Amino acid sequence: MSNSKTSGAKQIPAETFLRELFASAVASADPMLCVPPALRRPDVTGRIIVVGAGKASAAMALAVERQAEKQGWHDRLEGLVVTRYGHGADCARIEIIEAAHPVPDAAGADAARRIQALAADLTSDDLLLCLISGGGSALLAAPADGISVEEKAAVTRALLRCGAPIDEMNCVRKHISAVKGGRLARRAAPARVLCLMISDVPGDDPSVIASGPTVPDPTTRQQALGILTRYAIDVPASVAALLSSPAGETPKGDDPLFAKVENVIVARPSDMLAAAAAAAREAECAVVSLGADLEGEARELGAQHAALAVRLQRERAADLPLVILSGGETTVTVKGDGRGGRNAEYALGLAQALAGAADIHAIACDTDGIDGVEDNAGVLVTPDTLDRARAAGVDATEVLARNDAYSLFATIDDLVVTGPTRTNVNDFRAILIT
Length: 434
Fold this sequence. Notes:
Elements: E1 4-7, E2 10-13, H1 14-27, H2 31-34, E3 48-53, H3 57-71, E4 77-84, E5 95-99, H4 106-120, E6 127-133, H5 136-139, H6 149-162, H7 166-175, H8 183-188, E7 192-198, H9 221-230, H10 237-243, E8 261-267, H11 269-282, E9 286-289, H12 298-315, E10 322-328, H13 342-354, E11 360-366, E12 378-381, H14 385-391, H15 396-401, H16 405-411, E13 415-416, E14 427-433
Parallel strand pairs: 3-4, 3-6, 4-5, 6-7, 7-8, 9-10
Antiparallel strand pairs: 1-2, 10-14, 11-12, 11-14, 12-13
């Protein structure tokens, strides 16, 4: 199964090398590294309340506690953050709550309500320190007035199944939320707000990261209605009523409340690719970076990258190994009942298009350690992926039609399982040509 690449005088199995690139990417977004440089000793005289949501939020809270202790203001900290089940951290002063993702549950709704209450209790002498990362949209699950948690969850499930891109999903979620789309900042006024963000979105738009709870919302309730109509999503009457009313609109950039709000991105997908590129060059590889903001249907992007890899393999002049890097967030239009994950689906689309091309290996993983809702971060692709699947009685075409790519890679033992990484800068893909 393994080929080798030359790194100086050292032979490294291709799969090992690709795993090391992924580890370099994840390490670049470690909250312990990226949060402290953005923290300064607060100059407020009142309370310092920490709130947050996302797959990295608990680790970010721990980084805040440790930095605050170094700077001598840790005894002023209090608050809570909500993260996905299994992504918690052992904090001393900041309460950590775990909840469901990507479909909200009651624990997330309760945490969001408590965060709302903390924010609403602040004065102009206080600071609200927000810690936001990818996954926060589902975890900040408090619905707007008149909408139940179950109704909000039903809309979320429908958006996930129809293949809506993240910006469209977040447009809808902002407008049916009590917290997102700048509404948390509205509740915190007149306090100062500092929001530290780890970006997991193409383009690093702060209003999209976890649906921007402290960021002015450029989208409108009319756009949210249009998205639901375009995907023919039958929404509950309560959701339709809210989006048809001025009460369903979010705060905009001209609202004076944002004069006291600072939003800072502390880690980006482009940083992840830069770290992986540096590691590849250190191993004496040529690097082609396609960027950190790729989107599109997962299997189709995999096929496009296969064609590029074959072309570059044919055209390259040097005898150096070549690494093609990319990031972003693909979508999967679910038509079957299988176990998927967008990275597994991308990788199977890639493998099918490569059709066993020699000396091309790949890895596709989510930097949070969870590909979709499965227990793996992603998968590996080797020149004999399809041959081994066939030998195991698995038909790749039939599997892809059922959105069951996870099962194929599980059968041939090519899942990449890391457990929660407690960070999230979206998907990482690397194709190695030896």
